[in-house]
Amino acid sequence: xxxxxxxxxxxxxxxxxxxxxxxxxxxxxxxxxxxxxxxxxxxxxxxxxxxxxxxxxxxxxxxxxxxxxxxxxxxxxxxxxx
Length: 82
Description:
single chain, alpha+beta, 2 helices
């Protein structure tokens, strides 16, 4: 698999993950109370993914860094195509 195909695959996967997070964030009232995903709107919003006895916490800084990374990747792809 070439470099371009890998980049496209990574972008698509991350777009799906971000889409799921955005839908869950915007419809937090609809999400069941016993869901494995919890969204906390404190000083800095965070997403808590409950995995049996463990919890995986994504703070908002992670998503801002991820967004900036997407912009850099997109710009690099755009420059390589042109």
